[in-house]
């Protein structure tokens, strides 16, 4: 089973705390997306991120996002376990399920430690 480095886990936790503290949807989604990038190698954290994204979609009453998150909840654990996940992908329903994306520079630097 893949384990992520302590620094990645720390980044993940910081982003999740920031998402929970955010008042505006665009801010909480920003932090959830960053948490998703940090969590991808870890099956548990990856799945937890999609559950949080699903809850956020429900909070906004966004059916498309909620449905997209249900699919991602189902595939997150197997994808992480197999090491088959698109690096940098934000995890949103608008992002292709297997589309790699650039990792923000500050996040890439933090995760490289």
What structural keywords apply?
single chain, 113 residues, mainly alpha, 5 helices, 0% strand, DUF3703
Question: What order do the helices and strands come in, and which of them pair?
Answer:
Blueprint: H1 6-21, H2 25-39, H3 43-60, H4 63-82, H5 105-112
Biggest sheet architecture: none
- As residue ranges, the low-confidence spans are none
- What would the principal axes of the Cα set say about the shape? globular
What is the number of strand segments?
Answer: 0
Can you characterise this structure?
With 113 residues, this protein is mainly α. The chain has one domain (6-112). Helices cover 68% and strands 0% of the residues. It contains 5 helices and no strands. It has helices at 6-21, 25-39, 43-60, 63-82, 105-112. Helix 1 runs antiparallel to helix 2, helix 2 (25-39) packs antiparallel against helix 3 and helix 3 (43-60) runs antiparallel to helix 4 (63-82). The longest helix is centred in the middle third of the chain and has 20 residues, at 63-82. The radius of gyration is 13 Å and the shape is globular. It comes from Rhodococcus koreensis. This is DUF3703 domain-containing protein. Pfam families: DUF3703 (PF12487).
């Amino acid at each position: 089973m893949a384990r992520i480095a302590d620094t990645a886990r720390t980044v993940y936790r910081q982003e999740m705390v920031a998402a929970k503290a955010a008042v505006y949807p665009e801010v909480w989604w920003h932090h959830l997306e960053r948490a998703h990038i940090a969590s991808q190698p870890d099956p548990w954290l990856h799945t937890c991120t999609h559950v949080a994204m699903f809850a956020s979609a429900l909070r906004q009453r966004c059916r498309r996002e909620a449905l997209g998150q249900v699919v991602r909840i189902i595939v997150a654990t197997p994808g992480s376990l197999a090491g088959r996940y698109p690096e940098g992908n934000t995890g949103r329903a608008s992002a292709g399920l297997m589309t790699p994306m650039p990792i923000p520079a500050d996040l890439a630097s933090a995760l490289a430690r």
